[in-house]
Recover the amino acids of this structure.
């Protein structure tokens, strides 16, 4: 799927990983931010599971955020 991931209300520096639900967590992130209170978006392509699902995980020491996932489209 083609998605825009928006973080808002970040607690500290952190990152997001997005990947097909049920698959291994990838070693790379799709979005990074460097301080508390960040509001930022990024657009990326994410593989889906056979059921059409994705997983989005927040990482970083003590990092938390609200995430908005906007699906722009999908590829077959």
């Amino acid at each position: 799927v083609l998605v825009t991931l928006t973080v808002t209300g970040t607690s500290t520096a952190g990152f997001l990983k997005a990947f097909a639900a049920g698959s291994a967590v990838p070693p790379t992130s799709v979005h990074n931010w460097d301080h508390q209170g960040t509001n930022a978006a990024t657009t990326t392509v994410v593989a889906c599971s056979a059921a059409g699902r994705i997983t989005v995980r927040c990482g970083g020491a003590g990092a938390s955020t609200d995430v908005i996932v906007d699906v722009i489209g999908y590829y077959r």
